[in-house]
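Hi R.,

Here's the chain you asked about this morning:
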Amino acid sequence: MTTSTRGTAHGTRGLPAVLVLEDGRTFHGRAYGAVGETFGEAVFSTGMTGYQETLTDPSYHRQVVVMTAPHIGNTGVNDEDPESQRIWVAGYVVRDPARVPSNWRSVRSLDDELVAQGVVGISGVDTRALTRHLRERGAMRVGIFSGDALPDAGTMLAKVRQAPEMQGSDLSAQVATKEAYVVPAIGEKKFTVAAIDLGIKGMTPHRMAERGIEVHVLPATATVEDVYAVEPDGVFFSNGPGDPATADHAVSVMRGVLERRTPLFGICFGNQILGRALGFGTYKLKYGHRGINQPVQDRTTGKVEVTAHNHGFAVDAPLDKVSDTPFGRAEVSHVCLNDNVVEGLQLLDQPAFSVQYHPEAAAGPHDAAYLFDRFVALMGDDNQHSVSLEGQRA
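And the predicted structure, written out as tokens:
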């Protein structure tokens, strides 16, 4: 829901811009990136680096991202770090954009990239005050308006309140690949994995390829028959945007995989899909977890990891007991230490597990990279009727 006018980045910076939240709170600033108007869900990301990976993460589709780090754009933009082929955020909010990027890998400035891709942003905003407001009131709809002919306040607020809400939105098919493709194993091929693309990040199949896995990335619309047509040793369900309560097709496919007892791994949206497949509910968090500095405890080892997050929904599963499900016993394997949100699930009677965060973490940290080794261990385990994930840390 973006209407933008492209132009040179330096030609837009002096133009006035206004950010309007659906509760009427307004912030004034200057245009950053493309000029025009855009709408989405206002969320904040606490990462101090990795803005290029954030912008190109499909899970941010239809979200306006507020960066809590004050200086953005310092390292410019390169052609190696994007997580997909385009920027997915609906809008971008920063406090102090870099005047000149400085990094040996930079090939252009961030604001030039935003202009080129038609992403409407705003700078000069008190992002600390905006973040505190979102923490208190919760994530909500927002609009960014910029240019010489800004609408009046009443019109802007009306437009924001007409925008669709994130709750109830089915978005994964909008960002997923339309055609299947293969990411070959690096070195000797050891396993074949069918990966359901619900908004997959480019680093995820790469992390698997590094471990000798040939990854067949399938569209979000893939059926159980499509999955098993590639003769997989394991099945992966990716991250992605939207409300997991709408993802009935993905849940049905996952149940088909669980019925066949094929080793299964899910990340983020995939964790929520596993939760639903096991019979748990999902719910919307007040303001979500987004950034690269979120503490999570792996309850199978007791160790605490610093992890990368991007989710606004969570699984409603009991933390204090093992649950009986249609596919055997299940338990919460990981938990967020900030608020006790479920950050991982595992089945105890067959080879399936998931995490809510992002272990591929291209911008870091890499504390959770061992989870890909757990997946490899499950695919190599001949005794898949009694699965223990403990002790499989690389």
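The radius of gyration is 21 Å.

Let me know if you need anything else.
M.
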